[in-house]
Structures are given as structure tokens and as C-alpha cells.
Amino acid sequence: MDLSTFLVTVVTLFVAGYLYVKKKFQYWEERGVPYVKPEFPYGNLKGIGTTTPANEMFPKIYKQFKGKVLFGGMYFFTQPVVIAVDLEFIRNIFIRDFQYFTDRALYMNEKDDPLSGNIFALPGQRWKNLRIKFSPTFSSGKIKMMQETINAVAKELQNYLEPIAQRSEVVEIKDILARFTTDVIGSCAFGVECNSLKDPDAEFRRIGKRVFEYTKFELLQIFFVTIFPNLGRILRLKINKVDVSEFFMRILKETTEYREKNNIKRNDFLLLLMQIMKTGKLEGDDTELGKLTFNELAAQTFIFFGAGYETSSTTMTFLLYELAQHQDIQDRAREEVNKVLAKYNGEFTYDACMEMKYIDQILNETMRKYPIMEPLSRVCVKDYTVPGTKHVIEKGTAIAIPVHGIHYDPDIYPDPHKFDPDRFTEENIKKRHPCAWLPFGEGPRICLGLRFGMMQMRVGLAHILSKYRVKTSSKTQIPYIADPHTNILTPKGGMWLKLENL
What we know:
The chain is of the alpha+beta class. The protein has helices spanning 3-24, 27-30, 54-65, 87-96, 124-134, 140-145, 147-166, 173-190, 203-211, 216-227, 229-234, 242-262, 269-279, 294-325, 327-343, 350-354, 357-369, 403-407, 426-431, 450-465, and strands spanning 71-76, 79-84, 170-172, 376-379, 384-385, 392-393, 398-401, 468-471, 496-501. The strands form three sheets. It has a four-stranded mixed β-sheet. It has a three-stranded antiparallel β-sheet with strand order 3-9-8. Strands 5-6 form a two-stranded antiparallel sheet. Helix 7 (147-166) packs parallel to helix 20 (450-465), helix 12 (242-262) crosses helix 14 and helix 14 runs parallel beside helix 20.
């Protein structure tokens, strides 16, 4: 091929590509749907994962459409995406018309990346079948069974903080809390003593950090395979890093084989999944759930760990950040903890933790003000006519729910930047739309680990507040800055707070 032919070919391909993208960017305009003007070639994703956190972009889009339409349009690269802004329409997506929106817009490649085949990502009937098997392991009775394990790790956290508080030391609290949740979930999910509180360089903690550490290229790859999943599978692309997958598969294989060989039983999540894998039902329950394969067990244990340790530790971090700035709220929370503990002879029992209602209010308000996941996603699995309109959301269209925008809507939460746990009294909750608070999602695909996540946060926080006072310091970033290089809400540079003995 001579130079002129080569140049003509390159120009032709470039023009064809440009015209293709331009045509794709006319999708919403052709359907008469208001949309955010896209930029070539990112659509509306320019800066996401590099300079702009998702929690800054989506609230702006929410404000642009809210009160004018049920939904607007945007683009993830060339893929048209529905951004739902009306709470009744969001309730249709999550609950009333769930059969049209059963799936999440998540990439899955079980052949090359077995851990991606988890309940969070599985589509349709496969998700439903697995949820039937999985749900009993997260019942209140099963969480109660794990309470002793959670308490033991929380006591280790309390002891770890003791010398720090004696010196009134300023510490990066997010890392400490992540080590706490790593030890809790590592113990409950894998039956392994992670010891990351004692050793911050422990293998479990090091690998756990790798789960959520992404380079710019890795973040772009996640966006790519989410938008072009079939091409991603053809190219055998993975979303989980090789060393992470190998570590978790090895740990689970070694642990399950050792337990079976030595007939060891622990009151943890892994025991329950091993029962289902072996017999198709839980011990003491005649309900037939169907057996799990080892890869299914591994994928569910992995998502329990990955989704549970980072989200819980980050929520606890932001909660202590707020309590450090609002000593009156901290005192009220501590008073409740001490009062309940006195009633239960100083024991952090399951029933004692469930009585800490104000702690729950603080947690709920923290999750309102600092929603970890943005946005929530669904996929339309069959053509859906939007009630009251002529618009049809076509099969395969992704849906984005801008949680941060909803949680900061002043019409729902007056003075939304104010930290006010009394927003979550039973009376005030009843006054709001059921989809006005979405840290765990809603409907049949609501977070399955909700009960467990709330319990480990209650226990950890109660252990801290019963012994120590949390304060801001000169190193505390007020207001905090969100790290744009992660796919969950994270304070850039960590969270530095001072601890003091009471």
C-alpha cells in the first residue's frame, strides 16, 4: 500500500467513525427526550475517574431535569442512558415494574473471571435462583449467630485505639476502620483470622485494598466492558485483577478443604454456604435451595467481602467525621450507647445493638449525606412504555439513578448540607417518599447484606463511642475533597481525626 492510499484509508475510517458517533449522539434528540449535550468521544463521561468524582457530575444532571421531566438522557461514551429523576418513576423501576428492570448494568465474564459471576451482577433468572439460595444466610437469626465474631473484632479495635487515645493522637481513621471491617468480614465470610488491625501489612488487608485501587486505564476498561460487554468477553477482558482472584480462590479452596477434612464448624457465612454447596439446604431447615458450585460459592463470598468492607468502613469514617464536628450529637449518641449497655450488663448483644435507635439515625443520615455508590444502575430487559407518556425505553437501555442528587434535594431534605440525624426519626421517615433514601437500593434487588452491614457498623461505632471522644484537628480537611480516582465515594488523602480518652 502506497502512502496516498494509506492516508485515504485512515481519513476514510476516521470520518466513518466520526459520523457513526455523531449519529449515535442523536439518539435522545430523535426521540424528543431532553438530554445532556455529549462530547466526542466520551459522551458525558469526560473527567470521570480522572478529575471529576461521580458525586459531583450526577447531582448537576439531576438538577437540570428534576421537576421538568420523569427522566432525561445522557451518554456513556456512545451508549444512551436514561437518568431517572422523578421518585415515582424511580419506584416503578425498582418495584412496581421491576420485571422490566431486573438486571444491573454490570459486566460479567465467568469463564475468564469467575469472581465476576456474583449475585450483584447476575442477570434475570440466574440472579433470582441464586437469591433464593442466598437470602436465608442473611436472615436476622443468621446475623445474630455471627454477633460474637463481630464483637470480638470490635473489642480488638477498641484495644487498638486505647494507646492512640491516651496520647490524644491524630490518626488516619479510614485505614483503621477498613482494617476493622476487613477483619470482621474476613472472619465471617472466609473463616480466616486476618489480623490486619495488628498488622496493617497483612496479606488480607493488602489484597483487600487492591480490590478498589484502580489506575486511570483500569477505570476506563471498566467503563468500556460495562458499555460493550459482548466485545469485552470476546477479548477475554476481566474486571477483577489476576492477583486478587488468585488469592481469594486459593484462600477459599484451602479453607473449605481444611474444614471438611477436620469437620470444623464456625458460626460464620462460609459455614452456611458450604452447607448449601454440599446438601442444597441449610442445616436445621428442610427447605430445598439447590446446591452451589465452588465457583458460585467463591463469587458470592468475594462480593460479600468486597462490597462489605469498603462501604462500611467508609460510611463509619464519614460518620466519625461528622461527630467530630458536632460534639452535641456525639454526646447524645454516647449517652444512648451507655444507657443500653447498662441495661445489658455491659454486653454488646444482638438485642442491645438493635435498641440503639439514635445510632441508626446517625448512620442513616450519614448514608444520606455520603452515599457511597453513584449512580445506582439498572438495565431495561424488554421494551417499556413510560406511564403517562409516549416514550418507550428500549430493551438493553441502561438506567442511572442519581442517588447524590436525590439525597441533596432541598425539597426532600431541607438544608441538605446540614448533618441532622433527626431527619430519620420514624415519624419523619414516614413523611418522605420511599425512594427518597437509596444507599442500599430498593425493591427485589436491594442490597442483600444490608442487615449485616448495619450490624457491623453499629457494633464498631458503639465500641468506639463508649470509650473515646472523636475530635477534628488541624489535619482534618473541612470540607473534605472526594477522590476522583475511585469508583466509590472516598475522601482524598484519607480522614485525619483526633481521639481522646473520656
